[in-house]
Amino acid sequence: MTNAFKPLEREPAYLKVFKAIEARITDGSLKDGAFLPTEGELCDQFGVTRSTVREGLRLLEQTGLIVRGPAKKFYIRRPDSADIAAAASKSFALGGVTFREVWDTLASFYPAAAKLAATRLSDDDIAQLKAVRAALEAAGAKDHEATVAGAVEFFQHIARGLDNRVMLALLQSLNLMIGESLRHVIAGAPQAKDRISSAQEKLIEAFEAGDEVRAGEWMAKHIDDLKRGYDVAGVDLNEKI
Amino acid sequence: MTNAFKPLEREPAYLKVFKAIEARITDGSLKDGAFLPTEGELCDQFGVTRSTVREGLRLLEQTGLIVRGPAKKFYIRRPDSADIAAAASKSFALGGVTFREVWDTLASFYPAAAKLAATRLSDDDIAQLKAVRAALEAAGAKDHEATVAGAVEFFQHIARGLDNRVMLALLQSLNLMIGESLRHVIAGAPQAKDRISSAQEKLIEAFEAGDEVRAGEWMAKHIDDLKRGYDVAGVDLNEKI
DNA sequence: GATTTTCGTATTGTCGGACAACCGGAATTT
DNA sequence: AAATTCCGGTTGTCCGACAATACGAAAATC
């Protein structure tokens, strides 16, 4: 019997609202920065009640497609890499990934990123890296927070300098995760600051020289070094983040 | 004047509902698979109306923390890598990233992943890779869909075999994005299937031998080859996905 | 005339109640 | 025992309402 009726999926109205608005954002008819109509107007346009519209708006909100502007009105915003990264790392945390998984990923991906960085970082990017390193040097040896911040910021600037939003988002979500775990490591590893700083120095040199191979090698060493800090600090790599 | 009052953030009740439930999921007091109370019960417990509760539920729903079960009831589910990947790649699409960005990322990250795969894939994983390749071989030369599917599935299995959820999610979101773009390339590149298949063969050999270096090299070649297909197909790499 | 104050209005956040549609399971029939 | 019917619980949607807030314009002040 071929003339059976289709499953007839009924889709809740709030989902339709969500998809309708989402579609108009993706196809560009609602441009970035434009204000969304008020809830009341949306009710009229969609022919549903405010409760329903509001449920749809909550979906858009969580997706990151709209944010609250002045006067509480919503406006359109395409999610940027930072949002993607934040959402991803949050999900990871919920999923209970281990330190080992994060570090393994770092060790695999960042050397490759460093290679690319050697060919792609601008003079300005490199200057910023130097600034980050200088700030790290200036910080007190016992200032663990500054050490963590310096290490993470260095990664951040490299990711940003790659001029690639996909890579940026992926690396940023890693950066968010290592920030937390580095804190544990550094407090328990005495000369962490010096080792980090000297690795950064070598990396900057490689970037300046445009030396891909050296950049990749030093990044690998740098990360390996950070990871080794776990043993020193006595942290179990299989612990959940 | 230092004693000014701070902005005094008042957060909407629906956000509190969201955070409250989210917290109980993350801290484990609501376990994976458990059913959420009904909307009515939540109203009683939180002391708010259903409209409010429902807005909170929509947030949880979009975050991927809860899904609908039988009888429409919600149950708890920790987002897995596929969800993270899907969400991320969707956001990327909205952000209007270019093919070039995706391919650059592929070219940077996948060779590193292949190296790891050489040391980590189980015999079972490799058997599956062989199966994927066999299916690709069996497909007709003109069956572009099968070719795309074969190429993407090969990537998928590698990612899954790495035994690392973070890497899996990141690579999966890349896989989702290349699927679409590969379709364009392959239709316009005659011997794409053969080249893909032979690259897969070399990769499998390297994986079996546990030869990291060779695996990385062939993966780099493989991706480079796919990318070159763009020229042949006449696709502009700077086009948005 | 420029600045401050006041005030009205639009919008959001929340409420309470209402009803149809739907699902699952119990009660009933066959 | 199997199929059918029925019923209560739950969701999806609607309506109407109100307080709180934020904005912009009108009014008052200097």
Automatic annotation (TrEMBL), chains A, B:
Record keywords: DNA-binding, Transcription, Transcription regulation
SMART domains with a match to the protein in the record: FCD (SM00895), HTH_GNTR (SM00345)
SUPFAM superfamilies: GntR ligand-binding domain-like (SSF48008), Winged helix' DNA-binding domain (SSF46785)
Residue ranges of every copy of the HTH gntR-type domain listed in the record: 11-79
Pfam families (alphabetical): FCD (PF07729), GntR (PF00392)
Bilayer-crossing regions: none
CDD domains: WHTH_GntR
Domain of life: Bacteria
PROSITE patterns in UniProt: HTH_GNTR (PS50949)
GO MF term set: DNA binding; DNA-binding transcription factor activity
PANTHER family listed in its UniProt record: TRANSCRIPTIONAL REGULATOR, GNTR FAMILY, UXU OPERON TRANSCRIPTIONAL REGULATOR
Protein name stated in the entry: HTH gntR-type domain-containing protein
